[in-house]
Amino acid sequence: MPFAVYVLGLAVFAQGTSEFMLSGLISSIAGDLHVSLAAAGLLTSAFAVGMVAGAPLTALAGRTWPRRRALLLFLGVFVAVHVLGALTSSYGVLLATRVVGALANAGFWAVALVTALALAGPHRRARATAVVVGGVTVACVVGVPAGALLGGLWGWRAAFWAVALVSVPAAIALLVAVPGGRPEGAPQADARSELRALARPRLLLTLLVMALVQGATFCTFSYLEPLVTRVTGFGAGWVPVVLALFGVGSFAGVTLAGRLADARPDAVIGLGMTALAAGWAALALTAGHPVAALALVLLQGALAFGTGTALITRVFHLAPDAPTMAGSFATAAFNVGAATGPWLGGLALGAGLGFRAPVWVSALLMCLALAGTAALSVPSDAVRRTLSARRRPAPER
Predict the structure, then answer these.
(1) C-alpha 385 chain-centroid distance
(2) What is the Cα–Cα distance from 42 to 61, expressed in whole angstroms?
(3) Pick from 86, 43, 78, 85: which is nearest to 58 by CA?
(4) Distance between CA atoms of residues 282 and 230, nearest Å
(5) 20 pLDDT exceeds 50?
(6) Where are the alpha helices (DSSP H) in the chain?
(7) Which pTM was predicted?
(8) What is the spatial distance between Cα 124 and Cα 5, in angstroms, rounded to a whole number?
(9) Residues of 63-99 as b/e, b for ≥16 C-beta within 10 angstroms?
(10) Looking at 24-28, 217-221, 256-260, 313-317, which range is the least confident one?
């Protein structure tokens, strides 16, 4: 695997840490800036909204730029807004930096995915995707707890400074490792042609399935703390361990999927989706048993991110003539799920359905995703053969 692909993973690690680290810093931000906890929580929502809206917009704006220039620009903006966020004493300014940072992150994600695939070559597309997505899983295991630790020791601003500092060596490495100039195969069609290419039914269905898978994942992940403390029976000190266990499973999943999905993408997606649906249901049923709960948290992390990696690879396969825009829509679908899943889980909890309810919601979302996967499994060439046979005139008797 080219070194530049691992550099992209490093940059995604820094940005993934920023996306998720606020969960451990909300109280200190609210106290320092004299705002409510709800207002501080909007900083996380603002980032998610910026990712969803920013992915297609930034990709559309930078689709014809040389990839190294685009990556450095997006990463440079990301670093700048974190420095500003660490310095400001204004809640409004901090909220604005989260939105702009999300826009830059979304643009970087879209270009990073297509750059990694181009550098890795056609036979290692899933492995390249796994390296980039792996940056997010490492952020869950290492970056987010480290950000919370820094925030506890030196205040929430220290975590913002740390994200900016980690991004600097990534930017230097990108400057050295990623080729400059327009790459061979860069998009030549106009923007309307690329957007039309993204309107293909199979591609749209794949994006919907991606959103459902991520919605199921983050629905349970967001409420693991009450599940393990109030149903499984673990003390509060076990919560970081359980969250890290999910992250370890996620990293293992993307690594394994990267090796398998290039050769057997349909098998990885089909088996992964089925196992995810069964696994969420099993976790809901056995959450009161500590050993079973821990094993399933690890397994579900692996299945969720492994299947997600294979789905991202499929998006690029279905839109070879619009790779940058395809990457942006994949990023948007990921974040639609990441925003919608916790909201649905919260509704289930608010309805008084119990602390297992978000896990059952995850199982339901996976059933919907399985229905979409069944539709995707119909080979497009078989459909074309059927249509061709219908158009062929009947033989004379």
Answers:
(1) 36
(2) 27
(3) 78
(4) 17
(5) yes
(6) 3-20, 26-33, 37-62, 67-87, 91-120, 125-138, 144-154, 156-177, 191-197, 201-221, 224-227, 239-260, 265-286, 290-318, 323-350, 357-376, 380-391
(7) 0.77
(8) 11
(9) bebbbbebbbbbbebbbebbebbbebeebeebbbbbb
(10) 24-28
